[in-house]
Design goal:
The complex is a heterodimer of chains A (149) and B (104).
Chain A (H helix, E strand, L loop, with lengths): L1 H36 L4 E2 L11 E14 L2 H13 L4 H21 L5 E11 L10 E13 L2
Parallel strand pairs in A: 1-3
Antiparallel strand pairs in A: 2-4, 3-4
Helix pairs in contact in A: 1-2, 1-3
Chain B lengths: L1 E2 L10 E15 L2 H13 L1 E2 L1 H25 L3 E13 L2 E13 L1
Parallel strand pairs in B: 1-4
Antiparallel strand pairs in B: 2-5, 4-5
Classes of the chains: A alpha+beta (149), B alpha+beta (104).
Chain lengths: 149, 104
């Protein structure tokens, strides 16, 4: 009976640790690759003065993603929430989410020359009864400008 | 319909303002997607079902806002903003609003 219980508790932990870590590494590899690819196009958080160059089009570009932490990290966070201190395991979650949302926003307007007035919004998604979320939605939006040649 | 989240439409002049337009949707998540998501939660990463759900709701609210602006005869909405608030457990409201304008 005890070993069944051990499997039920340790199984998801181990799975979360091994697979979660692998998935995260893969996700970061993809983020780095795509960030390199889009490096030439600037994303700025302000609204610049009217540029000297004429503008062909202005569109709203949006990108969003819902990401969640794995079971192992959620377990670790449980301790942290008790003792206080920095939640390192959640930091990477938010970092991944933001960077992914910004990349999707860029991908939604591949012809853009610059993204101005970029805004990022993060909201946590509650998971039913036990409210230990660990799931966030990150939403990024900006105005994509395309210069006329 | 041109949408921007800045105070103007670059390269165009604003002829007339029609004031605030808004669109919103309230969506609850789907039980089937919830089950998949709770399994996915073990290994973490993107919950594609939820991403899709929220994206659809956001598109829907943008659509409603655009319809409202069209009724005024506007051809652009400037300074568009979004806000998300959870109304009940498992349900979220997605609101977008902006200023409808006519361009010269």
């Amino acid at each position: 009976m005890l070993w069944l219980y051990a499997i039920a508790v340790l199984g998801p932990l181990l799975l979360g640790f091994v697979v979660g870590r692998w998935l995260e590494r893969r996700h970061y590899a993809s983020i780095h690759r795509r960030e390199q690819q889009y490096m030439q196009v600037a994303v700025v958080t302000f609204e610049p003065p009217p540029p000297a160059r004429p503008i062909r089009s202005a569109t709203l570009a949006v990108g969003s993603v819902v990401v969640s932490v794995d079971y192992y990290k959620r377990f670790l966070a449980g301790f942290r929430l008790f003792f206080g201190g920095q939640l390192g395991s959640y930091a990477s979650l938010l970092d991944r989410g933001r960077r992914e949302a910004i990349l999707r926003m860029r991908e939604s307007a591949p012809q853009a020359d610059v993204f101005v007035n970029a805004r990022i919004e993060t909201s946590s998604i509650s998971q039913g009864e036990d409210d230990s979320t660990g799931t966030v939605e990150v939403f990024a939006y900006a105005t994509a400008l395309e210069y006329a040649e | 319909m041109i949408l921007t989240n800045i105070h103007h439409v670059p390269g165009r002049e604003i002829a007339e303002h029609y004031g605030l337009v808004q669109g919103s949707t309230i969506r609850a998540k789907h039980v089937g997607k919830d089950i998949v998501a709770s399994l996915k939660n073990i290994v973490g990463g993107e919950l594609g079902g939820y991403t899709e759900l929220l994206k659809e709701s956001r598109d829907e609210s943008l659509q409603r806002m655009t319809v409202q602006a069209e009724e005024f005869g506007a051809d652009a909405i400037i300074n568009v903003r979004f806000s998300t608030s959870s109304v009940a457990q498992g349900a979220a409201e997605i609101l977008c609003y902006g200023t409808a304008v006519k361009l010269r």
